[in-house]
Design goal:
Layout: H1 2-15, E1 23-25, E2 43-48, H2 52-63, E3 68-72, H3 79-84, H4 86-104, H5 120-145, E4 148-158, E5 161-166, E6 171-181, E7 185-187, E8 200-201, H6 203-206, E9 215-219, H7 223-234, E10 238-242, H8 254-266, E11 270-272, E12 275-281, E13 287-293, E14 300-304, E15 306-309, E16 313-315, H9 322-325, E17 348-350, H10 361-375, E18 381-383, E19 389-391, E20 396-401, H11 404-410, E21 414-420, H12 425-429, E22 436-442, E23 448-455, H13 458-470, H14 475-479, H15 490-500
Parallel strand pairs: 2-3, 2-6, 3-4, 6-17, 8-15, 9-10, 9-15, 10-11
Antiparallel strand pairs: 1-18, 4-5, 5-6, 7-16, 12-13, 13-14, 19-20, 20-23, 21-22, 22-23
Helix pairs in contact: 2-5, 2-10, 4-5, 4-7
The structure holds flavin-adenine dinucleotide (FAD) and nicotinamide-adenine-dinucleotide.
Flavin-adenine dinucleotide binds at residues 48-54, 71-74, 79-81, 85-86, 89, 153-154, 182-185, 203, 224, 316, 320, 352-353, 359-362, 364, 392.
Length: 506
């Protein structure tokens, strides 16, 4: 039965012709021979790091019958994402959105009240409750799946041994046939801008401010800068974003990005593009930031109560002992892996933010599952070209596949279909109609190449497009699928109709 399923999966993957250099795919069963424990105390798999990559890999490994230990230094599971990333930021984005809506939109829906105030400690407590419920939930999943959990700092001492300084002050050595490094990433610091997590904060500090800053300067107009800038902007901060590049979120489709920037500006966010920070002085009450044009020129000074450094993240391998066993990294410290997530040291694998690829929780999870499937002698598969990205602002911006700029650069002849939410009945009914759906499809075959959505719930809407891309669908395929009315999803159908033919409602 198991073999039949495996064969079916192989056939499915091959029939989808998913073999590109970005696809982690192999029919090799080479790792099978070193797979399972043979009655000793040794593990089949040791996972270092309990984030979305590591904890998912550990649970999947246990589900595949592999004896598994996960080592995590933080004291709680879930990694950056659950503790100081995805979850707390989405909690604050939601709470701050409620306040903003109450202040600016409720009255137009006929909902009025005499006073409105922010209880910041209560907002933070709601965020903390969400985090602790979820992290404890993962401990429960470990127990359910019989994953052994060691709380402490793991260091590689040989290709099959990890020494752990446990958080209770002890130490132990964990042995195993395969080691998966899932140690994630850390904030990238900027020279001359020392983070103190009080006045000059990373995302971690920005998630736990005890007061609403009057003026907030954000360095970097990427995911973190725009999400955390939105949180504090909605709660009343004056937010200025300083970005080195000529555009915000440089990886976004250009046309969508322009609309997105306009929307954020309407909400009060100010942007200083093509600008670099050259110095910071936090000796007084606030922070003074010296900036100059990216290409050089006159310097000016900005003042703020808090500065958020959100100029990217860097792989975290400090103290891990990669040199000790000779694991290779690239110039920026990412661990190099092959299509089976194996490093140059045969028993050592790596997944998630610590390897090249998008630094996203769902990508780390997919890496983790595929990696242990290979270790167990099965087939794993992750296609980095079809990993969706979502900026959880309001409206949200979600995308999958290629941007129009990338399609042009490839020299492919293409069609574009667009549909604005202004013409979508549900969006009009709820009076939240900013944004659009944009679909790019190959002219000759109509195969969808990329989908970009700006909408209040774009992060949910995008998955129809992800499935379409994964199954090599044409825009006509989406256009001919019945979509419920009235839903925002109808805008995806209409954009698909606009791609291969004509939309109805515009
Ligand atoms: C503010 C913020 C918001 C984000 N929002 C989103 C979002 O909405 N959606 C999204 O997809 N992504 C988001 N991300 C990115 C996401 O958090 C990461 O891509 C994801 O957490 C990577 O997972 P990982 O398992 O590779 O690493 P991590 O989550 O970083 O986990 C690695 C774990 O390893 C542990 N560790 C490291 N070294 C050792 C060692 N030697 N021994 C033991 N343990 C060790 C660390 O303590 C950590 O818990 C966000 C990030 C931030 C900072
Ligand atoms: N919604 C999500 O999925 C989500 C949310 C938060 C974080 N993340 C992940 O976390 C990672 C880190 O987020 P991030 O926002 O820090 O990085 P990012 O790579 O998204 O954006 C960093 C921005 O900073 C700019 N920059 C770099 N150096 C600069 C400098 N010296 N001065 C001014 N600007 C500078 C870059 O041009 C870029 O626009 C991202 O890779 C993202 O994948 C994802």
């Amino acid at each position: 039965m198991a073999m039949a399923c495996l064969a079916r999966r192989k056939c499915f993957l091959l029939s989808r012709n998913l073999s590109s250099d970005t696809i982690k795919y192999s029919l090799s069963l080479a790792s099978f021979s070193r797979g399972f424990a043979s009655g000793s105390d040794d593990n089949d798999v040791i996972v270092i790091g309990g984030g979305p990559g590591g904890y998912v890999a550990a649970i999947k490994a246990a589900q595949l019958g592999l004896k598994t230990t996960c080592i995590e230094k933080r004291g709680t599971l879930g990694g950056t994402c659950l503790n100081v990333g995805c979850i707390p930021s989405k909690a604050l984005l939601h709470s701050s959105h409620l306040y903003h809506e109450a202040k600016h939109s409720f009255s137009s829906h006929g909902v009025k009240f005499s006073s409105l105030e922010i209880d910041l400690p209560a907002m933070m407590a709601q965020k903390d409750k969400a985090v602790s419920n979820l992290t404890r939930g993962i401990e429960g999943l470990f127990k359910k799946n019989k994953v052994n959990y060691v709380k402490g700092y793991g260091k590689l001492v040989s290709p099959t041994e990890v020494s752990v300084d446990t958080i209770d002050g002890g130490s132990t050595v964990v042995k195993g046939k395969n080691i998966i490094i899932a140690t994630g990433s850390d904030v990238k610091s900027l020279p001359g801008v020392p983070i103190d997590e009080k006045k000059i904060v990373s995302s971690t500090g920005a998630l736990a401010l005890s007061e609403i800053p009057k003026k907030l300067i954000v360095i970097g107009a990427g995911y973190i800068g725009l999400e955390m800038g939105s949180v504090w902007g909605r709660l009343g901060s004056e937010v200025t974003v300083v970005e080195f590049a000529p555009d915000i979120v440089p990886t976004m489709d250009g046309e969508v990005r322009k609309q997105f920037q306009r929307s954020l500006e309407k909400q009060g966010m100010k942007f200083l593009l093509k600008t670099k920070v050259v110095g910071v002085d936090s000796s007084g009450d606030g922070v003074k930031l010296t900036i100059e044009p990216a290409a050089g020129g006159d310097q000016t000074t900005l003042e703020a109560d808090v500065v958020l450094v959100s100029a990217g993240r860097t792989p975290f391998t400090a103290g891990l002992g990669l040199d000790k066993i000779g694991v290779e990294t690239d110039k920026i410290g990412r661990i190099l892996v092959n299509e089976r997530f194996a490093t140059n040291v045969p028993s050592v694998f790596a997944i998630g933010d610590v390897i090249p690829g998008p630094m996203l929780a769902h990508k780390a999870e997919e890496d983790g599952v595929a990696c242990v499937e290979y270790i167990a002698g099965k087939v794993g598969h992750v296609d980095y070209d079809k990993v969706p990205g979502v900026v959880y602002t309001h409206p949200e911006v979600a995308s999958v596949g290629k941007t129009e700029e990338q399609v042009k650069a490839l020299g492919v002849e293409y069609r574009v279909g667009k549909f604005p939410f202004l013409a979508n009945s549900r969006a009009k009914a709820i009076d939240d109609a900013e944004g659009l759906v944009k679909i790019l499809a190959e002219k000759e075959t109509d195969k969808i190449l990329g989908v970009h959505i700006m909408a209040p719930n774009a992060g949910e809407l995008i998955h129809e497009a992800v499935i379409a891309l994964q199954y090599d669908a044409a825009s006509e395929d989406i256009a001919r699928v019945c979509h419920a009315h009235p839903t925002m999803s109808e805008a995806v159908k209409e954009a698909a109709m606009a791609t291969f033919d004509k939309p109805i409602h515009i």
